[in-house]
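Tokens for chain A. Residues wanted.
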């Protein structure tokens, strides 16, 4: 059995693996895809101390760093079920899609999240070429340009407020008849001169010139199609944690995020979690890496304090 078994090889999981291996404990890493969401992104400019890199480049560096340590990497595998230990200090089981079951005294869940997509023509074609999901990450790429935000919940309205300070103009499209964000956010949004809010506006197509986004089409409340010229579309209709496989084993909140305390501990003794799969706010690479390190140090602390039953 492993002392520390990490599920997920994005920034949080890779960081946890390095921190665990450096303690000299038996460390396993279920690595479906090194880099995680970073593999879906082009430019990264906010990984502190690296002014500019790309997702694939940072992912390769992450993998090389993990492989420099004694980590048992289990590639191409997906965890399908967690069997928590019957008693604190006991062995947890993790079932894999291949049918194998791994055992470990501590488990760190770092299975990340994925953005809900609009599912309209042009969205996949222009991903990273005008279609974006993360305003903290990609907002500055649209300095002085026109963008839309699709989604009128808290994340959509926050994104519109954030982007309005950077870009020339923001069009916020909300499918329903009114914004669903908190009132303070809607009030703040209403004060911004370079934001247009469209309600009953269903985004139906993202258009481009083969290289970049040039506009979008939405179906209005009048049933007619309308066109907006712009350079970017931020899709803000939900970040979904990859935690369904945990079922009721660990406590999750209404969004499906794993509830962690400030040590990265979950509701199950010996099971820790880190990164976008958790309740930790602000889903970013630097944060996921920090949280992964923290979860590994907490797991090590557990190993030395909690005796096997
Ligand atoms: P993830 O990166 O999601 O990694 C989780 C890993 O677990 C994945 O490899 C996944 O395949 C795997 N996994 C999922 N389920 C299972 C399972 N059941 N069993 C085994 N493995 C599983 N952040 C920034 O800081 N700067 C940026 O510029 C930036 N740009 C972004 C651009 C895009 C398009 C996207 C989508 C995100 C961007 N982010 C950016 C956010 C950043 O990528 C995430 O915050 C970060 O990757 C989260 O790390 P993580 O390790 O928690 O999860």
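Reply:
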């Amino acid at each position: 059995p492993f002392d520390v078994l990490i599920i997920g090889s994005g920034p949080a999981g890779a960081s946890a693996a390095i921190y665990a291996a450096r303690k000299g404990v038996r460390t396993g890493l279920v690595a479906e895809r090194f880099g995680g969401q970073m593999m879906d992104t082009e430019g990264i400019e906010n990984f502190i101390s690296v002014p500019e890199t790309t997702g694939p480049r940072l992912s390769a560096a992450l993998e090389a760093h993990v492989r420099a340590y004694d980590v048992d990497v289990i590639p191409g595998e997906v965890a399908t079920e967690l069997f928590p230990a019957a008693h604190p200090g006991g062995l947890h089981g993790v079932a894999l899609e291949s049918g194998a079951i791994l055992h470990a005294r501590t488990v760190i869940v770092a299975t990340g999240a994925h953005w809900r997509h609009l599912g309209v023509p042009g969205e996949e074609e222009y991903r990273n070429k005008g279609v974006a999901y993360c305003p903290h990450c990609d907002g500055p790429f649209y300095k002085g340009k026109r963008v839309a935000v699709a989604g009128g919940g808290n994340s959509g309205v926050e994104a519109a407020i954030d982007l309005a300070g950077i870009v020339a103009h923001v069009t916020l499209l909300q499918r329903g008849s009114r914004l669903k964000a908190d009132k303070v956010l809607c009030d703040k949004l209403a004060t911004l001169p370079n934001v247009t809010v469209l309600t009953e506006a269903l985004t139906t197509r993202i258009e481009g010139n083969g290289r970049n986004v040039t506009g979008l089409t939405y179906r209005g409340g009048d049933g007619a199609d309308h066109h907006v010229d712009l350079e970017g579309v931020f899709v803000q209709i939900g970040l979904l944690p990859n935690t369904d496989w945990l079922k009721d084993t660990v406590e999750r909140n209404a969004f499906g995020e794993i509830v962690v305390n400030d040590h990265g501990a979950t509701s199950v003794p010996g099971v820790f979690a880190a990164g976008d799969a958790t309740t930790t706010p602000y889903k970013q690479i630097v944060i996921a890496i920090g949280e992964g390190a923290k979860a590994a140090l907490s797991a090590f602390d557990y190993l030395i304090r909690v005796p096997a039953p």
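The pocket of flavin-adenine dinucleotide is lined by residues 7-13, 30, 32-33, 36-38, 40-41, 44, 46, 78-79, 110-113, 115, 133-134, 137, 242, 245, 275-277, 283-286, 288 (CB under 6 Å). The radius of gyration is 21 Å.
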